[in-house]
Specification:
By secondary structure, this protein is mainly alpha-helical. It contains three helices and no strands.
């Protein structure tokens, strides 16, 4: 199986994680606003940072899927 995120999908994933962390971390309204401003200004579609994040996410997803596939083959469930 091959899963590969597009840069816009990686950006949406980052937005979800940042928003969730901001909401659950108990940050003040000012801190949440600053975090969201950072995300909006720094993580633009097509930016070098976004391309790098997408590449790293795709490499990690591929590594995890490969590890899971290998583990399923090597698992001895008949014991």
């Amino acid at each position: 199986m091959k899963v590969e995120l597009e840069p816009e999908e990686a950006r949406e994933l980052l937005a979800f994680v940042v928003d969730r962390l901001a909401d659950e971390a108990g940050l003040s309204d000012d801190d949440r606003a600053a975090l969201r401003r950072w995300r909006a200004e720094s993580v633009r579609p097509g930016s070098d940072a976004m391309r790098e994040l997408t590449t790293k996410l795709n490499a990690e997803v591929a590594r995890i899927l490969q590890s899971k596939a290998r583990s399923a083959v090597m698992r001895h469930d008949w014991q």
